[in-house]
Design brief:
CATH topology of one domain: Alpha-Beta Plaits
Subcellular location: Nucleus
Order of helices and strands: EHEEHEEHH
CATH class of one domain: Alpha Beta
Structural class: alpha+beta
Protein name: RRM domain-containing protein
Number of strands: 5
Main location: nucleus
Strand order of the largest sheet: 2-3-1-5-4
GO molecular function: RNA binding
Pfam families: RRM_1 (PF00076)
Radius of gyration: 54 Å
Length: 248
């Protein structure tokens, strides 16, 4: 699952006698787990570190909040799986007794000054163990870095997917806005064309009305003139009739 890294812990300095079952049972006391990956070498021997994935984030937080943890007098180093920056904390399995470390240091100094075969063998064996421990620590750090790297890639991929989705949505919105603008623009052109057509029709109607009015006025003038002429003729006729005729 994509969120496994948020529920996974890295456990270091595990005693080599502890197997997967015992480690799983101990981790389960903090919460249900889905996976316990105890790292082993090519001979099947424990390498002293493991990755444990909890079923819920509560188990992850529970084991981290109850540190320090001890197993067979050894301090267990428990970190989140992606926390690989503090590599100095991922110590190889140390000796539980400081006196033993002092003794080992003295033994190394003695071996450097000794030419006996037995001391040389002890010195070589200690160097071999130290190399194995350093190799385990290096592998653990590489494992943590790989987990963090995979998580970072997954995060970037998710971000890229979201960005592509947002870009697609923005392009669709732009197309819709462009289509709406085109429709509005076409409607505006249609309305303006219709308005101009109506204005021209109104102008033509008013022009025709003015022409008709002018013709009507002209006819009225002619009728009035004819009426005056008729009236004048009648008046002249009546006047002539009323003039007395002279006696001859």
């Amino acid at each position: 699952m994509a969120d496994d890294i948020h529920r996974r812990v890295f456990i270091k300095n595990i005693p080599y006698e502890i197997n997967d079952v015992a480690l799983s049972e101990w981790c389960s006391t903090f919460g249900p787990i889905t996976r316990c990956d105890l790292k082993r070498d090519r001979f099947g021997n424990s390498r002293g570190f493991a990755f444990v994935t909890f079923a819920h984030i509560d188990g992850h937080n529970n084991i981290l909040s109850k540190t320090p943890h001890y197993c067979q007098d050894r301090l267990l180093i428990v970190k989140t799986a992606c926390d690989y920056t503090n590599t100095n904390e991922y110590q190889s399995n140390p000796s539980p007794d400081p006196l033993s470390q002092t003794t080992s240091s003295l033994s190394i100094n003695d071996n450097l000054n000794s030419t006996s075969m037995n001391n040389s063998f002890t010195f070589d064996n200690m160097n071999r163990n130290r190399l194995v421990s350093l190799r385990d620590e290096l592998d653990a750090n590489i494992e943590c870095m790989q987990i963090a790297h995979d998580h970072e890639i997954k995060t970037l991929q998710d971000k890229l997917t979201r960005e592509k989705k947002l870009l697609k949505e923005a392009e669709e919105l732009y197309k819709e806005a462009e289509e709406d603008w085109r429709k509005v623009n076409d409607e505006n052109i249609r309305l303006r064309t219709s308005l101009i057509k109506n204005v021209m029709q109104t102008f033509n109607i008013r022009k025709d009305l003015a022409r008709r009015t002018k013709e009507q006025l002209k006819k009225c003038t002619q009728i009035e003139k004819q009426s005056l002429e008729i009236k004048s003729t009648r008046m002249m006729s009546n006047f002539n009739e009323n003039i007395p005729k002279s006696k001859t």
